[in-house]
């Protein structure tokens, strides 16, 4: 059993209206020091395998095929022990 | 200027229907090794301050007040240099 963490973020060149809205909400309640805010997804997975190399390859395939929209999003992943 | 990362996750005792749906989608395209999958939010912030201690306190306030729903979500944050 391996645990993995996947981070999917919107590319820097792409607008993030959700982040802009949350930044505006923070400003409106007094957190004016927030100069920028971008929102992404964070996923925790449990994989039924003990082969780290295979798990990394499979994670990359999952991200490319389903977890991230690579036109507008970047992804990265980490495997835990 | 300090950069911060905020992770908001659904508490273990709370159902995560979005995660269940994504897990099902992964299974249906052949990634049957995924035993569990939970989805949270990941935020990158830039803060207009150089005081790390103040920034940490302010981040905690932001999470408690606006970024996380502490009834059903946990949060954690990291400050970068």
TrEMBL record, chains A, B:
GO biological process, one term: 'de novo' IMP biosynthetic process
Location within or outside the cell: Cytoplasm
Reactions catalysed: N(2)-formyl-N(1)-(5-phospho-beta-D-ribosyl)glycinamide + L-glutamine + ATP + H2O = 2-formamido-N(1)-(5-O-phospho-beta-D-ribosyl)acetamidine + L-glutamate + ADP + phosphate + H(+)
Pathway: Purine metabolism; IMP biosynthesis via de novo pathway; 5-amino-1-(5-phospho-D-ribosyl)imidazole from N(2)-formyl-N(1)-(5-phospho-D-ribosyl)glycinamide: step 1/2
Stored InterPro entries: PurS (IPR003850), PurS-like_sf (IPR036604)
GO function terms (MF aspect): ATP binding; phosphoribosylformylglycinamidine synthase activity
Keyword Cytoplasm in annotation: yes
Enzyme Commission designation: 6.3.5.3
Principal EC category: ligase
Major subcellular location class: cytoplasm
Superkingdom of the source species: Bacteria
GO CC terms, sorted: cytoplasm
Keywords, in A-Z order: ATP-binding, Cytoplasm, Ligase, Nucleotide-binding, Purine biosynthesis
Functional summary from the UniProt entry: Part of the phosphoribosylformylglycinamidine synthase complex involved in the purines biosynthetic pathway. Catalyzes the ATP-dependent conversion of formylglycinamide ribonucleotide (FGAR) and glutamine to yield formylglycinamidine ribonucleotide (FGAM) and glutamate. The FGAM synthase complex is composed of three subunits. PurQ produces an ammonia molecule by converting glutamine to glutamate. PurL transfers the ammonia molecule to FGAR to form FGAM in an ATP-dependent manner.
Family: Belongs to the PurS family.
The protein's assembly and partners: Part of the FGAM synthase complex composed of 1 PurL, 1 PurQ and 2 PurS subunits.
UniProt xrefs under NCBIfam families: phosphoribosylformylglycinamidine synthase subunit PurS, PRK05974.1
Protein name: Phosphoribosylformylglycinamidine synthase subunit PurS
Lineage: Bacteria, Bacillati, Bacillota, Bacilli, Bacillales
Name of encoding gene: purS
């Amino acid at each position: 059993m391996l645990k993995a963490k996947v981070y999917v973020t919107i590319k820097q060149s792409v607008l993030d209206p959700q982040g802009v809205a949350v930044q505006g909400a923070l400003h409106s309640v007094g957190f004016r020091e927030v100069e920028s805010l971008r929102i992404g997804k964070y996923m925790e997975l449990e994989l039924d395998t003990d082969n780290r190399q295979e798990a990394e390859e499979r994670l990359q395939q999952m991200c490319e095929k389903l977890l991230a929209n690579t036109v507008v999003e970047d992804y990265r992943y980490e495997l835990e022990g």
